[in-house]
Design goal:
single chain; 293 residues; alpha/beta; D-Maltodextrin-Binding Protein, domain 2; 7-stranded mixed β-sheet; 43% helix
Length: 293
């Protein structure tokens, strides 16, 4: 018994005759008849009542035709899965910590609205660790910050260019330049293990701006709050989908032209689920569009 025979049996059931089944499958009447005779011989069972014209399925033949239809559907599902056309039941996405309050809810809401049965697993870590997890296919996708670059394994799509600002409390309103503001009070650094922290530190050093560091934090929200309360100054990005920097802050663009943090979406080129990739690609495009408005 083979797939061709199963297809012929199911098509006979749908069309009602050997001739009609043959026409639909591009085979002759006799070819369909021979396939069905071979199937009956292999099963040692009568699937057709040939005493009537046209021949009809026996009760056993009707039962097996229904079972064959289900079997063929499973074969089609296997083919679609292999071709990446079947949506997985779950997806794993990584987010850098600085996107957890703004980007993460937007992504989860959109996925829940469009695909309510899709289970979403979330991991948060630094950009380098997330990129490695995607490369190892431990994560399907990750939203992280540059300087990640496309490789043979990874595709990188830019989501947003987040401008950096030197921020200080309202009392620093008289600062004339970003360098002056950065040196006006003790400096609150962003985690130097992160790419953003390293980017800021390297840029300050290249410009010869020496700041008085008093603490190092890994939460931009906490940094903004402490600066607003007068504990010091810092450099932070205006994050995608986050609220604008507080009006209680003095802010000046960092560098001229303005330095920025690039937010990117990273995926593995070996991910076989093309449907999943299309969903995330469309979602990221919508995020870009909303950010541009």
């Amino acid at each position: 018994m083979n797939i061709r025979q199963l297809k012929s049996l199911v098509t006979f059931h749908e069309e009602g005759s050997f001739a009609a089944a043959g026409e639909k499958l591009g085979l002759s009447h006799s070819a369909i008849s021979v396939q069905m005779q071979q199937m009956e011989e292999e099963l040692a069972a009568a699937l057709f009542d040939r005493s009537s014209r046209p021949a009809q399925l026996t009760p056993l033949g009707l039962t097996i035709a229904h079972q064959a239809a289900k079997t063929l559907e499973q074969f089609r599902l296997i083919e679609k899965t292999a071709a990446g056309e079947v949506l997985q039941t779950s997806i794993s996405i990584g987010f850098v910590p600085t996107t957890m309050q703004s980007l993460l809810p937007a992504v989860l809401n959109q996925l829940r609205n469009d695909h309510p049965d899709l289970q979403v697993k979330v991991k948060t870590s630094l950009s380098g660790e997330l990129a490695e997890a995607v490369s190892r296919q431990e994560l399907d996708f990750a939203f992280l910050t540059s300087p990640i670059v496309a490789t043979k394994e990874l595709t990188v799509k830019e989501i947003a260019d987040e401008p950096l600002y030197v921020i200080g409390p309202a009392s620093c309103i008289d600062a004339a330049t970003d360098a002056e503001l950065a040196q006006m009070m003790p400096f609150i650094s962003f985690n130097k293990k992160s790419w953003l922290g390293q980017q800021i530190s390297a840029r300050l050093q290249s410009r010869g701006i020496f700041v008085q560091e008093v603490m190092e934090l890994d939460s931009i929200d906490t940094i903004e709050s402490l600066v607003a309360q007068g504990f010091g100054v810092s450099i932070v990005p205006q994050r995608l989908l986050a609220n604008p920097l507080s009006s209680q802050l003095t802010k000046i663009s960092f560098c001229d032209p303005a330095e920025s943090r690039k937010l990117v979406l990273v995926s593995n080129n070996g991910n076989p689920n093309h449907q999943l990739a299309k969903i995330i690609d469309r979602l990221s495009s919508e995020l870009i569009g909303n950010h541009a408005k």
